[in-house]
Amino acid sequence: MLITDLQPPHYDDAVQLWEAAGLTRPWNDPEADLLRAVQSPSSTVLGGLIDDELACTAMVGHDGHRGWVYYLAVAEDRRGEGLGGLMMDACEQWLRRQGAVKVQLMIRETNTEVLNFYERLGYERSDVEVRAKWLTTDA
Ligand SMILES: CC(C)(COP(=O)(O)OP(=O)(O)OC[C@H]1O[C@@H](n2cnc3c(N)ncnc32)[C@H](O)[C@@H]1OP(=O)(O)O)[C@@H](O)C(=O)NCCC(=O)NCCS
Fold first, then answer.
1. Which terminus of the chain has a smaller tally of CB atoms within 10 A, N or C?
2. Hey, which residues does 4 pair with through a beta bridge?
3. CA distance 11 to 97
4. Residue 62: which of 90, 97, 32 has the closest Cα?
């Protein structure tokens, strides 16, 4: 598998992969998220290609100190072959090259299936509560 910065011909494939993997939500626009990530110097979207077909993808970015991984998805018929682990590895390497010293990610409370996957890769539970506020409405 070749892991590289995602190129425009595979943008739609990445969005489809995220949708098929259940990572998108009606209130988020994955295509806009993707474009923002690839246009910023502090983030990117990586794609794992097998015979020029997108097998897995992840978004990665940093704030200088902490790195974040989002939208990790492996095509359903490619799961369990180690691709998710390779993609997380590539995200960590990308962050190291950028000078980030820590990597974090958010897991939806309902996505209990992946807890074991991250645990095996050395990701420990953090004792923090994530809070969020929309900036796009006046509410
Ligand atoms: C989570 C996901 C990326 C894992 O990808 P994958 O390619 O199947 O994972 P790997 O084959 O690299 O597995 C790595 C290890 O985690 C384990 N693992 C993977 N998925 C697992 C699961 N659902 N439950 C338990 N263990 C799991 C594997 O057994 C493997 O362990 P091993 O190396 O000792 O054999 C993939 O299942 C996926 O795309 N899920 C849907 C999207 C998603 O939820 N993304 C995460 C958002 S936070």
1. C
2. 47
3. 24
4. 97
Chain-centre distance of CA 55, in angstroms? 13
Q: Which domain holds residue 52?
A: 2-120
pLDDT at 94: 98
C-alpha span between 62 and 101 (Å, rounded): 10
Cα 118 from Cα 125, distance rounded (Å): 10
Ligand 1: atom nearest CA of 71 is 47
Q: Is 3 in the pocket of ligand 1 (CB under 6 A)?
A: no
User: How remote is the CA of residue 89 from the centroid of ligand 1, in Å?
Assistant: 13
Tell me how many helices (H) and strands (E) the chain has.
Answer: 4, 5
- Give 15-36 pLDDT, tens digit per residue: 999 999 999 999 889 999 999 9
Q: Does 77 sit in the ligand 1 pocket, CB within 6 Å?
A: no
Within a domain: residue 126?
no
- CATH number, domain of 51, equals 3.40.630.30
Q: Which of 1, 23, 33, 79 to mutate to test the pocket of ligand 1 (most atoms within 8 A of CB)?
A: 79
The mean pLDDT value for 90-96 works out to 98
Q: How far is the CA of 78 from the centre of ligand 1 (A)?
A: 10
Total tally of structural domains belonging to the chain: 1
